[in-house]
Amino acid sequence: MIEAEKSVGAETENLRILKISRILLVLRNDVDYLKTVDYVINLANSIKDSKVFVLYTVDLDPIPMDEKTEREFYRKLREEGKKIVETAINRLKNAGVYAEFYDMHFGIAAERILKAERELAPDLIVMGVRGLSTFKKMLLGSVSDEVTKLAKTPVLIVK
Predict the structure, then answer these.
(1) How far is 86 from 95, CA to CA, in rounded Å?
(2) Which of 17, 116, 139, 159 has its CA 20 to 30 A from that of 126?
């Protein structure tokens, strides 16, 4: 929970953040997730009693395919996701950070991240960014842009 203390001066109002205890760490298959994990390690280690919840998501539009191909496609995605999540959680725990697996999702990533925000009520969402060009962003959209615009929780983007 973010605790804030306001002190109102004659001309300015200062807001001081005192505590962030619940962090939603969003891992994706298309960004440098280790950089994001390392950032969260540094952040969490500077905060007493912080908890990190790990959400792994792959941004996918529905793809028409036969059942066998679909089963194999999602099996490979789950295997890749499991490796990424295990690596991230081990890295967090080895650094002394409380880390808990929350969910693995394949589909519209921004929707799932925002749903996780409602379910977990984190104090901060941390996610990496893929770094699309302006043209690609116009055509494809950006998960981090959408989450940043729609989340009620502060979002920290790690580049």
Answers:
(1) 14
(2) 139
Is 5 part of a structural domain of the chain?
Answer: no
Note the pLDDT tens digit of each residue in 125-157.
999 986 554 544 444 458 888 999 999 999 999
CATH code of 86's domain: 3.40.50.620
Question: What is the maximum span of the chain, computed from C-alpha positions, in angstroms?
Answer: 68
Q: Using CB atoms within 10 Å of the CB of residue 68, give its burial: 0 to 12 exposed, 13 to 18 middle, 19+ buried.
A: exposed
- Residues 109 and 57 sit within 8 Å (Cβ to Cβ): yes
Predicted TM-score of the model (pTM): 0.83
- d(CA 19, CA 4) in angstroms, rounded, equals 8
pLDDT in tens, 74-115: 999 999 999 999 999 999 999 999 999 999 999 999 999 999
Number of structural domains the chain divides into = 1
